[in-house]
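Module 6 notes. Inverse folding takes a fixed backbone as the condition and produces residue identities as the prediction. Think of it as a translation problem where the source language is geometry and the target language is the twenty amino acids. Below is one complete input and output pair. Work through it position by position during the lab.
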């Protein structure tokens, strides 16, 4: 084998490689949150100013079009996607593209729960994109920009043809702040704080184009909408929601942490600097795979390989030939060994994905720590292989 079984001397400075919640930003300290509006009503002027600041600074850091709206909504990225699916879909035909677990959740929503009458489903295998050429020019579209559990992302949005009569809903939770998002092709974009920017969980970010607003104001779905899904009042967009008046009570501590994360992002140079960090980590892992016999990327096409949730499969014949349950048990033992050494936490592949590894490389992960991780992966693999 081309990997070194010797135990490494250097550990990652931060061994947190979970895909969500992800590693906190370098230099994080609880003291940075002392200015949070704790003990105040989220309806108070002081707290609402914090929430509005989070909205306005999001637009600035991401470089959103001036006429796009931003809101903080309940239930993380999942809540943001579902409130739009349930509020907007059904007005016309729908195409859904999926190639991993969360994309398949939106398929379930559309088919089993919403029961959309004219809905075409296009599903690719883990690590392999579906055929986007099948998108209908007049149909609404739902898709993920980056497959968090599969390690594959869309290359671009060239396949989305402009049409003001339809909406395009994009779950971009593990892409925003790390990948080039073509905002003008998308009408709904959602993400959560706990991914690329290393914030805390439970809050979703909702970005709407003018076209999405028009759909909300012109279409009333024939289904009941829970309170946390409602974005209109008397047939018009609820403007308060986009000014910091959230649907339910947000965590003002988490809000302060998001603001501090935006401070960190701006101090590095903004979105482009964050993307460069993720790109560098992917380069390090690509070089490791090129010199390593036992592992390959789950996504075979380098042009659409994710730079955030980077996924791998074990190809060493003795392990690859095992039953799936045995492969998962092998990876679990590898992870236990790495955790015992404080070298790597939470890097096993997603439970519903093929057995393997998933290394988070969002911007809060230091590329230098990724470089220090790879010898530990080789060591853990060699140790467990020797025990079979």
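Target side of the pair, the amino acids:
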């Amino acid at each position: 084998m081309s990997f070194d079984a010797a135990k490494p001397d250097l550990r990652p400075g931060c061994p947190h490689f979970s895909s969500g919640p992800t590693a906190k930003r370098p230099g994080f300290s609880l003291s940075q949150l002392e200015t949070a509006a704790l003990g105040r009503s989220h309806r108070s002027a002081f707290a609402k100013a914090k929430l509005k600041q989070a909205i306005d600074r999001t637009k600035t850091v991401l470089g959103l079009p001036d006429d796009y709206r931003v809101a903080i909504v309940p239930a993380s990225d999942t809540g943001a996607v579902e409130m739009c699916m349930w509020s907007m879909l059904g007005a016309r035909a729908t195409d859904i593209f999926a190639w991993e677990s969360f994309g398949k959740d939106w398929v379930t929503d559309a088919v089993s729960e919403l029961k959309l009458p004219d809905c075409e489903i296009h599903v690719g295998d883990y690590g392999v994109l579906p055929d986007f050429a099948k998108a209908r020019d007049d149909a609404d579209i739902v898709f993920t920009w980056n497959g968090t559990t599969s390690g594959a992302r869309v290359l671009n949005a060239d396949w989305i043809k402009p049409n003001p009569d339809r909406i395009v809903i994009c779950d971009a939770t593990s892409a925003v702040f790390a990948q080039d998002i073509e905002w003008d092709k998308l009408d709904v974009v959602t993400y959560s704080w706990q991914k690329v920017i290393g914030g805390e969980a439970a809050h979703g970010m909702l970005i709407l184009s003018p076209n999405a607003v028009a759909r909300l104001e012109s279409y009333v779905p024939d289904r009941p909408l829970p309170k946390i899904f409602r974005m209109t009042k008397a047939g018009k967009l609820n403007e308060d929601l986009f000014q910091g008046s959230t649907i339910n009570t947000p965590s003002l501590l988490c809000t302060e942490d998001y603001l501090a994360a935006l401070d960190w992002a701006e101090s590095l140079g903004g979105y482009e600097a964050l993307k460069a960090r993720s790109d560098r980590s992917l380069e390090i892992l690509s070089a490791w795979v090129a010199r390593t016999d036992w592992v390959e990327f789950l996504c075979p096409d380098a042009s659409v390989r994710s730079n955030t949730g980077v996924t791998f499969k074990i190809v060493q014949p003795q392990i690859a030939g095992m039953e799936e349950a045995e492969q998962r048990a092998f990876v679990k033992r590898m992870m236990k060994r790495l955790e015992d050494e404080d070298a790597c936490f939470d890097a096993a592949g997603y439970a519903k994905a093929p057995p393997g590894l998933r290394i988070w490389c969002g911007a809060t992960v230091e590329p230098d720590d990724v470089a220090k991780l790879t010898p530990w992966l080789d060591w853990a693999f060699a140790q467990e292989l020797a025990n079979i």
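Reference fact for the lab report: The chain has a mean pLDDT of 97.
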